[in-house]
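User: I'm putting together notes for a lab meeting next week and I want to include a structural view of one of the chains we've been expressing. I don't have a solved structure, so I'd like a prediction I can at least talk through. The sequence is below, exactly as it appears in our construct file.
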Amino acid sequence: MIQYTIAVEGMACSMCEAHVNNAIRQAFPVKKVSSSHSKGHTQILSETPLDEDRIRQVISATGYQVLSIQSAPYHKKSFFSFGK
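Assistant: Thanks for the context. Below is the predicted structure for the 84-residue chain, given as structure tokens.
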């Protein structure tokens, strides 16, 4: 799995978050997407690599600006890994 953290400028409320999340879900086959207007970012979990230029286009089309995109391998933390 790959986790993308995208800095997004212009989100001001939960409806803004929903617009970004829905746009991502419609454009990509993602496992999970969540946005935070207070933190100014969107996080995406995907099983396959995503086209970062396409991510920028999809979010820009909703009226928000992508400032940066970071990607990293994602490993689900299990309950039993606590304290390791």
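A couple of points you could mention at the meeting. The helical segments are 14-27, 52-61. The chain has one domain: 2-75.

User: Perfect, that's what I needed.
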